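User: Could you check the structure of this?
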Amino acid sequence: MNSTTSAQSRFLAETFDRAADRRSDSAWLEQMLRQNSDVMWIWNERNLFTADTTPRVLLLESDTLPTETVPIFLGLQGNGRGLFAADLLGPENEQDALLALGLFAEAARFIGLREFRGNLTAFERELLFYARSLVIWHADQRFCGRCGGTTVSEEGGHVMGCTRCGHKHFPRTDPATIMLVSTENECLLGRQAAWPPGMYSTLAGFVEPGETLEAAVAREVKEESGIDVANIRYFGSQPWPFPKSLMLGFFADALNRDIRRGAELEDVRWFTVAETKALLEKLNSRFSHLDTIARRLIRHWLGSRA
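Assistant: Sure, the predicted structure tokens are below.
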């Protein structure tokens, strides 16, 4: 790896502990930053990777941290080293951003997670999503929503405290339902106008205040397709930090077949098992390294019809 100080470059350890109990220990956090930690850098909402043909998540030792940077404590790696996230502010282009960290373009790249073309393990995805979510939250929470006062980072970056009224702000996650609606041999899929030609996926939508997850599933499906559903059942979840969602996956059975498309989607239609298999191949090529919950829902449904 080519960098101005190659010894400062590191890779993720194999295991991780969020160590939430250490976030309020400012003296310990300061010591970790000075002596025994790595930083996961983000610039312009892009994560730092090696510039190899098989790129890897790239960390830098925390002694490279500029004094004006506010680090966010993520937790402890399995090798005992702390892990922090940091937002690189100031540089207007990628080359300047890399030089600010003592790196050359031949050694490293800042890449958006949806544009990344390498492979990521589930463990790597979790940490990249975690870091990205908190960095974006910090950028959005510079001022108090109650009084407009400036905020400062507390508890390792997991709290933003208002310097005027003292109110404490905590990271927020927006719950969104994502569901595969089906009959015995067909499933309901839709597409947004901005998607690549021929690309369809599961229906999805945000949960409204005071609404149960099941009610959100039924409402969103009805709004987007005109289909009524029953037998709503939970499948699984996935953090989706674009910018701060938690996708909650469900299956549901359709009670009718006549589609009345809502205004949010360009098209909604029924797919046979064979059509769904062909579509899944297209979906696998889009964000393949992220293994989206939409693909997992479709794979599971196809498996149940095999």
